[in-house]
Design brief:
By secondary structure, the protein is mostly helical. The protein has 2 domains: about 140 residues, no CATH class; about 35 residues. Helices cover about 75% and strands about 0% of the residues.
Amino acid sequence: MSEQKPAKTREHFLQNDRRKTWKIETLFENFLWSSRFLVLFAVVSSLLASLILFLIGTLDIVKLIIDLVNASRGTGPAMDLHGAVLGTIVGSIDIFLIAVVSLIFSFGLYELFISHIDAADTTESSNILDIGSLDVLKDKIGQVIIMALVVRFFQFVLAMKMENISQMLLFAASVGILSLALFLIHLGKKLSHDSK
């Protein structure tokens, strides 16, 4: 009977790896790894897009306030307080949500490809940067995009003029479907949190 040899461990294979590493291979791998810094173009562009969207949303609100003051003094045109004012505010919220999507996208890309953001560890809001993979980043962005679509739908509803029963029924059905979608998103988040 022959003696059984002990199983070789991973360390054994790593120590005995005799494969020759060519200099050009090392150079190419270093170049390839350094190419991840191309992501900085997307990070900076997303930050700039977010800044522009925050400014647009803020300017819309400031313009609305100026128009309201002028309308109340009688120096400007009269305003429909429910339609125009609510529409502008909801539109600004939609712009802010899209700006947040752009901001989360830039944070996530930086965290995934470049480096951990150390400054986030000292703040309480650092859980938005819990991005361990592209799937987590897609989920976070998807949730904010869905909320932006909900707000956009609400903005359309405010401007909509229903003239017959079929339009009212379609409106009720769309609100029901939207509510179901929000419920399913909440349920999915709860189930994924409970499974951890």
